[in-house]
Design goal:
The protein is of the alpha/beta class. The chain contains six helices and five strands; from the N terminus they run αβαβαααβββα. A hairpin with a 4-residue loop joins β4 and β5. α1 runs parallel beside α6. The chain starts with a helix and ends with a helix.
Length: 160
């Protein structure tokens, strides 16, 4: 999986570098794995601006400007939270494109409405375009997180 993730990040990097665009990330359930995968690519400083690891709700509020009311109304694991996280990345960085992930990697924390493996991924572009998807991954904690990283990077590549 690691080599597959690296190849995806490398492809994304070539595209971004050629166009002079940069990206930044906001990660909750992946704990910085997307940023790590991207920065494993030599020369990624030309197209990667920064990463926010906003694991706690307080970090989402403080670092990305997510509203406390939004988190109370919808929860941290929601389309609304992921969308606001991506918007917050663009507000608090110099990036052209943002990706944000929030989810329940397990083994605990799931509910009937949001079982373990529920993940929301949002992409946003400074031109105003935005997209959010809900994924239902399976497997253990590491597998769920790896699938999230893969989907986030693939989505950036396609969203670009």
């Amino acid at each position: 999986m690691e080599s597959e993730l690296f190849k995806l990040a490398e492809q994304l990097g070539r595209l971004l570098k050629a166009s002079g665009k940069t990206i930044a990330t906001a990660e909750s359930c992946t704990g910085g794995w997307i940023a790590q995968t991207i920065t494993d690519v030599p020369g990624s400083s030309a197209w990667f601006d920064r990463g926010f690891v906003t694991y706690s709700n307080a970090a989402k509020v403080q670092m990305l400007g997510i509203s406390v009311q939004l988190l109370e109304d919808y929860g941290a694991v929601s389309a609304e939270a992921a969308t606001e996280m991506a918007a917050g990345v663009l507000t608090h960085s110099n990036a052209d494109i943002a990706v944000a992930v929030t989810g329940i990697a397990g083994p605990d924390g799931g509910t009937q409405e949001k079982p373990v493996g529920t993940v929301f991924i949002a992409w946003a572009h400074k031109n105003g375009a935005a997209k959010v998807v809900k994924k239902q991954f399976s497997g253990n904690r590491r597998q769920i997180r790896a699938q999230t990283v893969k989907s986030a990077i693939e989505g950036m590549w396609l969203f670009y």
